[in-house]
Amino acid sequence: MQWTDRIRQVKIFLVVAAILIAVASLLVSRSLTHDLAEQEKSKMQVWAEAMKSLSAADENTDLSLVLKVLDENHTIPVVVLNNEGVVTEYRNIEIKARNAKDSIAFITSYAQQMKASGQIIRISLSKNNHDYIDVCYDDSLMLKRIAVYPYVQLGVVLLFVIVAIFALLTSKRAEQNKVWVGLSKETAHQLGTPISSLMAWSTILKETYPDDELLPEMDKDVKRLQLIADRFSKIGSIPEPVPSCLNDVLIHVVDYMDRRTSKKIEMKTELPNEDVIINMNASLFEWVIENLCKNAVDAMGGKLGSITLRLEETDKRAIVEVSDTGKGIKKKDISNVFRPGFTTKKRGWGLGLSLAKRIVEEYHHGKIYVKNSEIGKGTTFRIELRKR
User: Fold this and answer.
1) Structural domain that includes position 32
2) What is the CATH number of the domain that holds 49?
3) How far apart are CA 163 and CA 175, in angstroms?
4) Domain stops at, among 77, 110, 144
5) 12 located within any domain
6) 230-277: per-residue pLDDT in tens?
7) Structural domain count, the chain
8) Which tens digit of pLDDT belongs to each residue from 299-354?
9) Closest CA to 250 of 316, 321, 180, 324
10) Are residue 130 and residue 261 in the same domain, yes or no?
11) Which of the residues 14, 23, 322, 329 could staple to 292 if both were Cys, CB 3.0 to 4.6 A apart?
């Protein structure tokens, strides 16, 4: 849980850092964009005055300074319209047209867009204001790039955060896998010696008391322990799937659970008439169903109830559902039931369902999830296995 909490804290830190970087970037970019826009507006006012001087000049006027001002504009798109709306001058505009007529139409339309956005300076050429020119201008390419840059930067930061979180989760999962594999193999190793001794004592007891009715049941439990040890030893390796009958697996689980649970709990099966054959490791998959059934027994808390195992087959999938009439799962907990370390029991490590999920998804390439759950009514887990 400490590792999970640390991962959650790191994720929160990365998200908060990304938000702060994005907000700071947007504020700085907004300030730079505003300052640059004001500078360009000031330049265009000077440029418009130069156009006015050029329009009012005669043959004796020195135009060297005026022409220098006009020629120095290499970045800001500008269109000059007379009082009839006819284009008289334009600069720094990339024209997208096939011929001269289309070019004029394109520039005129562009100028109208500038006027609509308020980027216009009207220069009067006469005292009565009947003769004037409209200097329409647009943001320079540099200003547009600066305005877009923070959003690009925000995308890069978000991408970095996603990659960092993915790397953390991958590292976490790899570490959990090592812990599970080590724990499983050590458990199998530790169980091996007492199981061997029990098997030897069982053989001796059979020879000494051949008619004892309890010995066959004890022998079954010893074999069960051997099966459990075998399952643990397979965790971490890639067991070879073989064609197996799902009907038999479910019947075997019901038979085992029915003898070892309270008589208040009824074990039910809803199986198709025909056998459902699928490539699987029957021993590990049987453990998954047993785990779901044991959780269902715990959910009923010793009260009257039932556990139902359903099996159905489609063209592409075999579907197993384990339903109980227990206390149900809270909605806020449904997304966490398969998370390692999560448990609602007073005792337990919270590894059963996470290990079941790994067996279903990684070993059998299937899917396991909570189909539905209602407080006080029960829960249904659903397993979907692909047919091959």
Assistant:
1) 2-144
2) 3.30.450
3) 18
4) 144
5) yes
6) 767 766 566 678 899 999 999 999 988 887 788 889 999 999 999 999
7) 2
8) 888 888 999 999 999 988 999 999 999 999 988 888 888 887 667 666 555 677 88
9) 321
10) no
11) 322
Structure tokens at 251: 């019947």
Domain boundary among 100, 128, 144: 144
334, with CB counted inside 10 A (0-12, 13-18, 19+), is middle
Would residue 177 count as lying in a domain?
Answer: no
